[in-house]
Amino acid sequence: MGTIHAEITLKNAVDEANARKGLIKEEEVRSVTVTSVVDTGAASLVINEELCQILGLGIAEERSVKMADGQRVPCKITEPVEIHWKDRFWACPSVVVAGAESVLLGAIPLEGMDIMINPKTQELVGVHGDVVEYMAY
Question: Higher confidence at residue 134 or residue 34?
Fold first, then answer.
């Protein structure tokens, strides 16, 4: 299997909540559209410091995170980010990896949005077709 990319929009979830409450205008919601690497070996969403700043994300905590090569690196964990792909979205914290060159879309947000990699076409598709099946965890 090759590298799978997906265009996703990331939004500051606190801004989104404030817009729904009428505290800020919809156009004030900080967001960015990026091409991500779909990485089922990663757990969550991985972004770099620049995207964290663009989105205005607060830092919830810092913790040691295990990288793909087994190395443990101190990383910041952000407040929730809304991840939008087509008509689906999922909110979760992101892991800020200093100097990360790519945004990684990991397994938890994929499952949350009920999407998977189609092994034949090498693209993201809905697990249940066009019907979003949100899971009660």
Answer: 34
CB 36 within 8 A of CB 101: no
* CATH fold for domain 4-126: Cathepsin D, subunit A; domain 1 (2.40.70)
- Does an H or E element contain 31, and which? strand 31-38
Query: Distance between CA 119 and CA 11 in Å, rounded?
Result: 29
pLDDT at 136 over 80: no
Q: Give the pLDDT band (50/70/90) at residue 11.
A: very high
Is a pLDDT exceeding 80 seen at residue 93? Answer: yes
> What's the CA gap between 9 and 17, in Å, rounded?
16
Give backbone dihedrals phi and psi of 4, rounded to 5 degrees, phi first: -105, 130
Q: Would the pLDDT of 9 be above 90? A: yes
Round to whole Å and give the CA distance between 101 and 47: 9
At 13, which helix (H) or strand (E)? helix 13-20
For the chain, give every domain's residue range.
Answer: 4-126
